[in-house]
Amino acid sequence: MFKEAFKYYKAKWPPPDLNGVIDFEEPSKTNHESTLVELQDNVPGLHLSFPPIGLQPPQSWRCYALKSHPGILVIRNPFTVHGQRYWIARSLRDYPRAPNRINLNENLFASDAIKDWWNALQQCDDKDEARRLKISMRWATLGYHHDWDTKVYSETMHTPFPQDLSNLCQYIATVLGFADFEAQAAIVNFYPIGTTLSGHTDHSEPNQTAPLFSFSFGQTAVFLIGGTTREERPSALYLRSGDVLIMSQQSRLCYHAVPRVMKTQEEPWNNLPADDADEKLMKPERKKLRRDFEDNSNVCDMSLYRLVRDDSFWLPYMHYLNDSRININVRQVLPSGVKQLPLPPS
Ligand code: OGA
Ligand code: MN
């Protein structure tokens, strides 16, 4: 069942009928009233104020659950335009650098490693070479580094987790009622249009009760969410730029995949609004607001946050996103209260 659905949505010809794909942007337009529930007062932290910079206040979030897949939650793009730009720039410019690991440096001598992929891409004047460098970047890992061969996390493959990303997840987790969540490992996936991620479950984490947070930026994905076996028929949903998908409870260990990344008409990351919520935060009227803003800025690279509003700085990021999607996939590895992984048996 899962495999058939994957093939169907991946196919170039005949192209799939996308009418059955659940669409959080226009929930009323799609005939999914039976599967899609808008959570209003059931979100425990909707009243929380002072979100991290780049996030809209939770009172304005639209949060959904899927009746057919209990535990799946989707927040329809809660980011400001600058917020999206910030996370996109972090994913492309910063996260692919040491101490984080990238697919391009696997099985290489350290001396051959690409130290700064984004910079190398910008400096590359050969068009074909630049294209190769661009599309060959597929993942970066942060914190506890996912071991793609053994699928086992270890203390020897652990580097500090980015504070800003941990803070973002912590805030969203608290709003949704998962206040204990700790971001400890992430995979940043890069998807040039035409690439896919085949069906799998994420079961390497010793802690499989903590939810998983998945952020989408750039071009739109068709995402498949199934059951705990490949025999169950999956549902297809669109994940658009800014959308946050949470796999919690019964859905945490369910099969999922990305069979298709497709060009979107809307490019919210490029449209700077005239009335800019973040701009207001930059000039706080109230002392309380200022104090909170400064607290938030401790866990965000403010110089990058200012840079992303400059169109000439933004241009190469815009080009990258023209035909790519980025997914930041964040997990808690350790059981709550546990400080490190046990040593592997020798
Ligand atoms: C993953 C994953 C989904 C996505 O990284 O394990 O499932 O939306 N990513 O890209
Ligand atoms: Mn996954």
From TrEMBL:
Residue ranges occupied by any Fe2OG dioxygenase domain in the UniProt entry: 182-334
Cofactor note: Binds 1 Fe(2+) ion per subunit.
Name the record gives this protein: Nucleic acid dioxygenase ALKBH1
Presence of keyword Methyltransferase: no
InterPro entries per record: Alkb, AlkB-like, AlkB-like_sf, Oxoglu/Fe-dep_dioxygenase_dom
Gene symbol of the encoding locus: LOC115627410
GO biological process assignments: oxidative RNA demethylation
Keyword Magnesium included in the entry's annotation: no
Annotated GO CC locations: cytoplasm; nucleus
Residues the record lists as binding Fe cation: H200, D202, H256
Keywords linked to the UniProt accession: Dioxygenase, Iron, Metal-binding, Oxidoreductase
Gene Ontology MF annotations: broad specificity oxidative DNA demethylase activity; ferrous iron binding; oxidative RNA demethylase activity
Cofactor(s) the protein requires to work: Fe(2+)
Pfam families associated with the record: 2OG-FeII_Oxy_2 (PF13532)
